[in-house]
Amino acid sequence: MKRWRSCAGRNPEPKETKSMGEGHSHGAAASSKRLTIALTLTTTFLVAEVVGAVVFKSLALLSDAAHMMTDVAALAIALAAIKIGQRGSDDLRTFGYRRFEILAATFNAVLLFLVAGYVLYEGILRLFSPEPVGSTGMLVVAAFGLVVNLVSMRLLAGGADTSLNVKGAYLEVWADLLGSIGVIGGAIVIMLTGWTWVDPIVAIGIGLWVLPRTWILLKNTTHILLEGVPKGLSLSAVRATVATVPGVTDVHDLHLWGVSSDDVNASVHVVVAEGQPPEPVRFAVLTRLEEVHGIEHATVQIEFGPDGDKAGPGHGDTPHA
């Protein structure tokens, strides 16, 4: 069987590659600005909340401060990931540094798991050994935190749907927002009733709320690191689309993957009959992939022969990163 190799894109230097890069840089710059403001606000409040947790002996405040600390770490890492991710490719990293975003999001998820575990442990201990809590100071600090979290969430909401890195930071702030609400409610209850056990109950509730959302984030980032098929795509559907292109007699070695959370790459081998002009088939496959599935970066290898390499439909097809 004869093989004819083709390059990714519609010509050797496609304009779409440049525009994709420019679009990513513009989005990264906007996310960077939001993250910087949110980081400044969160760091300022973290200092105030740690002091308040110590002075007023509130585990709920301490748990919220612990989450706020992970917020600061998450925002700082997210910001660093964007800066590093904007670097171009080089001889060692041909995809550039965009995957650093996924590594940062994974680290944030693991950090959240550890903090939530610590809060749950401390909360259970405090249930059996309640301590006096300064409810008034607890209320004031938590109210201040609620305002900071609302502003930070507003800043990060725009980039949470397009970047797992920003989404991780957004989830951290969202967890703190609910934590602040819980602390405010707990403080009011303690002020009215004197029930100090409400403080660890609120802390435990915050920890239990965070865990499943952290698991979803970790699951998504792990999927990308394991080079899984990007969200919203189906390997069988893409294979079927390529198979319907006129001139294609077989499709195999189909791979779909993403370097980061907002891009899709594909490579595929297609077999055409002897005598079939390769270029029209290649361009037709590229066009169909983009129009039907939104895949703008693909590599198509053309192979000649009546039955290709004798492989049946789907032979060698694996999700790849």
Offer a quick outline of the entry.
The chain is 64% helix and 9% strand.
Question: How is this structure best described in words?
Answer:
The chain is α+β, with helices and mostly antiparallel strands and 321 residues long. The chain has eight helices and four strands, in the order βαααααααββαβ. Helix 1 (15-56) packs antiparallel against helix 2 (59-85), helix 2 runs antiparallel to helix 3 (100-128) and helix 3 packs antiparallel against helix 6. The chain is elongated and about 85 Å long. The two termini are 28 Å apart. The model is unreliable at 1-24 and 308-321 (pLDDT under 50).
Write the layout of secondary structure elements.
Elements: E1 3-5, H1 15-56, H2 59-85, H3 100-128, H4 135-160, H5 164-193, H6 198-225, H7 235-243, E2 248-257, E3 265-272, H8 278-293, E4 297-304
Parallel strand pairs: 3-4
Antiparallel strand pairs: 1-4, 2-3
Helix pairs in contact: 1-2, 1-4, 2-3, 2-5, 2-6, 3-5, 3-6, 4-5, 5-6
